[in-house]
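cron nightly-structures :: item 1 of 1
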Amino acid sequence: MDLGLKGKVAVVMGGTTGIGAEAALRCAAEGCKIAVCSHNMEKVEAFEKRAAEAGITDVLVEQVNGMKAEEQEAFADHIVKKFGRIDVWVNCAGGNKHGPLYTLPEETFRYIIDLNLTSAFLGIKTASKYMMEQKSGVIINLSSLSSKMPVGYRVTYGAAKAGVNLLTIGAASELAPFGIRVNAVAPGIIDTVLSANAIYEHTDYIMSMIPLHRAGSPMEVGDVIVCLASDQFSYVTGAVIPVDGGKNSMEDTDLVWTTPWKG
């Protein structure tokens, strides 16, 4: 199936590893020119090597701190100078530092909010500047199953992702008159570095709570992101799509993700 992405320019913030990398590579496979960034230079260099090995030539990879407006804006300027436009912008940067709320330092709380929510806000603001001029574009934010149900010792992360959901819905309404669609994907347990400890320390417990009885892969989330970016989803905006093996549909959520804190 032709997704109508050939020749378009896709940007993935936090796109050098995990879900972001798979989304970027899937966009490239559909014929997109891709721009990817990370705050970590080693990850930037690793993705450059991976893209070269895959034969991807229309690519821009830079070191960018997505929590800083000036760095996002400079990155966007470099993209437009190289490729001429921005058609798809994926806010995939994120992460967490676990801990009980009563011991969580204020600076850690602010860091988690900035990494997951502020960076998405800045991405929407940066991308929309160019998309509003061209009267078209797609913005996709990375949310989480944690945004809709309690997760023990990860409450700040869930709060930030809940903010991403509302930010998505609000931006979709504001940007629709300019031909810009804004959606989010909300992964559950995905086999990435972020979820590794939960998967491998509590495998049986966690998998028993997922209807498909397995963790998802970054590629499976990347596939959903690419579909949302495509013309096939041209009437979908303001949606938060769960990619969680059916966990979102279950009712007994109160105790599901709470496991003993080990410090």
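cron nightly-structures :: done
The helical segments are 18-29, 41-53, 69-83, 106-134, 155-175, 196-201, 203-208, 218-229.
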